[in-house]
């Protein structure tokens, strides 16, 4: 049986279990599961927002409030259908989340979560101080939901509606996490600059995830309002937002089912502790929050990234099976222009001149090495060429088009892909998943299509392409191994395979031979020659002079940010300026 059929059967079995539970479980457990479902929707958004994308938000309860108050006002004051309340609530949530996302996601570090606290508190006070919302007293008499003549006016009936939406959201989110978009999210969390270099528009992707998480929270608010038939501001404050984060962390923010597990753990523990703590302490109060705080600290110490979600590591979703052929080949441009032309490029960092008026070309089908002492400006020049740093002066052209004014995610589409001086991989992801990310700009399947299961053939093509590049660098034995388990030299080869998956005309390699053994260096040299023969040019930074002299057609020497020499390996080997400044005598 194929992996897709096994997965479909698993989801069907889960749906059947929840459906049967709605008929046979006692009322108390149905009520408990209703709240777990509502909380799971919000925590599920945080799985993508915080767990996958690394964006910490303390404002999700405010979005729950928007969904709840919108349907409450429209159904009680205007007499509109709750379904219109759902549409309006999601629409308002969409608008508000886009505005807040554009403002908040510009922040970084600890300023970002602080920003979410600010608007979360603001929205909470709006809910409690508008008379149409009933002030702190709230709104009562919210009508039940009706569908196909059935009125959802009891907790047991609402159970089915809540879990239909929750299971659907789980399925959609799981599809997104295991798609092109999910790989982009994890890459952004791991290293935003690397993600941008492979075609991810970081700002747009973060905004999409932020809005998606807000819409799930708004959906939860709509269901909450019609379950209780009453709303007031208290469930939509900062304390509840923190609790939603607790749920995501406890369940394991890297797993969609962690949202359900975390919601269940916190909800059941709260019920137990609210009964047990007064007897233990001899007084009433919200003492359960003390226990939750201690639990979070313990989990962060023992299992920081996965919480109880480490249980899900026993099951890993397999990638799609490969196709008969890979992704369509990237069109190669022709012409007399150099593949890369660096013209008078300069970059300063305060009073330090890192790169000073450097010019050189990389022709088609050539291997050009960039060498120089530590601090000569080699990696800085790579970052200038690939858009990670802005030029102070000069120009960079590729295939006759100027690219130094482009964003990093646009430059990869011009045929440039790179590796890094310090290995940048998603360590917990498999070698295959890391390499698949390299094809991001060659594919078009968006998160919505992935969530709905549309256009899955592209994933099969991407798997085929990634497997081909992994075999090309000799790592097929480690294809499904987490990248962090590999030796440093092997991780550098993973980076090269990822860059090759982008289908580049020019491959920029920053110290690719570092950490490789002698035999591995020989294999890498063979690979570079094969790339040159196939029409792919290479620009590499490397300190191993024996390796450089054996593979390079041309060598550019930098010293203190300036171009010292440019010529063939033979010319560089004999240049007295190079010998004095860098090579220290001779190169054999």
Give the helix/strand layout.
Blueprint: H1 3-24, H2 27-52, H3 60-76, H4 82-104, H5 111-129, E1 139-140, E2 145-147, E3 150-152, H6 155-177, H7 180-190, H8 192-197, H9 202-228, E4 230-231, H10 238-251, H11 256-281, H12 288-302, E5 340-349, E6 352-362, E7 367-371, H13 378-385, E8 393-398, E9 401-402, H14 408-411, E10 416-418, H15 431-437, H16 447-451, H17 457-472, H18 488-501, E11 506-510, H19 518-533, E12 537-541, H20 545-551, E13 554-559, E14 562-567, H21 569-574, H22 576-583
Parallel strand pairs: 7-12, 7-13, 10-11, 11-12
Antiparallel strand pairs: 1-4, 2-3, 5-6, 5-8, 8-9, 13-14
Short key terms for the protein model shown above:
alpha/beta; elongated
Task: Characterize the structure shown.
The chain is of the alpha/beta class and 588 residues long. Helix content is 54%, strand content 12%. The protein is built from 22 helices and 14 strands. The strands form 4 sheets. It has a 6-stranded mixed sheet with strand order 10-11-12-7-13-14, sandwiched between helices. Strands 6-5-8-9 form a 4-stranded antiparallel sheet, covered by helices on one side. Helix 2 runs parallel beside helix 6 (155-177), helix 2 packs across helix 11 and helix 3 runs antiparallel to helix 4 (82-104). The relative contact order is 0.10.
């Amino acid at each position: 049986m194929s992996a897709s059929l096994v997965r479909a059967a698993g989801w069907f079995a889960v749906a059947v279990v929840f459906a049967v539970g709605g008929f046979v479980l006692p009322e108390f457990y149905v009520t408990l599961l209703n709240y777990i479902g509502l909380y799971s929707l919000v925590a599920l958004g945080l799985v993508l927002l915080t767990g996958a994308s690394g964006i910490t938000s303390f404002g999700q309860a405010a979005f729950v409030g928007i969904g709840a108050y919108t349907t409450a006002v429209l159904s009680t004051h205007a007499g509109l259908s709750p379904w219109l309340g759902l549409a309006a609530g999601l629409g308002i949530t969409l608008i508000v989340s886009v505005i807040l996302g554009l403002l908040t996601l510009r922040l970084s570090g600890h300023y970002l979560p602080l920003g979410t606290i600010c608007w979360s508190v603001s929205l909470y006070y709006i809910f409690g101080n508008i008379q149409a919302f009933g002030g702190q007293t709230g709104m009562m008499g919210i009508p039940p939901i009706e569908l196909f003549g059935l009125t959802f006016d009891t907790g047991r009936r609402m159970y089915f509606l809540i879990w239909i939406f929750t299971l659907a959201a789980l399925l959609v989110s799981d599809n997104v996490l295991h798609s092109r978009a999910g790989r982009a999210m994890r890459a952004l969390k791991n290293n935003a600059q690397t993600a941008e270099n492979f075609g991810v528009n970081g700002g747009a992707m973060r905004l999409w995830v932020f809005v998606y998480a807000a819409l799930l929270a708004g959906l939860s608010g709509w269901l909450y309002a019609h379950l209780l038939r009453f709303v007031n501001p208290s469930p939509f404050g900062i304390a509840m937002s923190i609790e939603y984060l607790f749920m995501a962390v406890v369940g394991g923010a890297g797993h969609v089912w962690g949202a359900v597990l975390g919601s269940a753990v916190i909800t059941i523990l709260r019920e137990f502790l609210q009964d047990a703590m007064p007897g233990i302490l001899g007084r009433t109060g919200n003492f359960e929050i003390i226990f939750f705080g201690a639990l979070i600290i313990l989990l962060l110490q023992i299992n920081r990234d996965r919480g109880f979600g480490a249980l899900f590591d026993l099951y890993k979703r397999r990638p799609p099976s490969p196709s008969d052929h890979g992704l369509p080949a990237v069109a190669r441009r022709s012409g007399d222009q150099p593949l890369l032309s660096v013209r008078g490029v300069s970059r300063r960092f305060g009073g330090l001149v890192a790169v000073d008026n450097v010019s050189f070309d990389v022709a088609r089908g050539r291997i050009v090495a960039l060498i120089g002492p530590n601090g000569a400006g080699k990696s800085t020049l790579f970052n200038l060429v690939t858009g990670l740093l802005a030029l102070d002066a000069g120009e960079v052209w590729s295939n006759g088009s100027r690219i130094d004014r482009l964003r990093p995610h646009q430059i990869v589409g011009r045929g440039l892909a790179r590796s890094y001086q310090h290995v940048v991989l998603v360590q917990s992801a498999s070698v295959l998943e890391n390499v698949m990310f390299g094809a991001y700009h060659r594919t078009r399947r968006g998160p919505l299509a992935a969530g709905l299961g549309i256009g899955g053939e592209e994933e099969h093509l991407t798997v085929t392409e990634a497997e081909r590049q992994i075999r090309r660098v000799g790592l097929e034995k480690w294809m499904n191994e987490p990248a962090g388990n590999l030796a440093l030299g092997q991780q550098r080869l993973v980076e090269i395979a990822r860059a090759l998956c982008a289908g580049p005309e020019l491959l920029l390699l920053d110290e690719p031979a570092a950490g490789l053994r002698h035999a591995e260096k020989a294999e890498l040299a063979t690979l570079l020659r094969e790339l040159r023969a196939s029409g792919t040019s290479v620009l590499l930074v490397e300190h191993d002079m024996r390796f450089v002299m054996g593979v390079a057609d041309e060598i550019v020497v930098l010293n203190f940010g300036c171009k010292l020499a440019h010529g063939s390996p033979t010319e560089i080997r004999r240049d007295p300026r190079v010998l004095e400044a860098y090579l220290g005598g001779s190169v054999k």
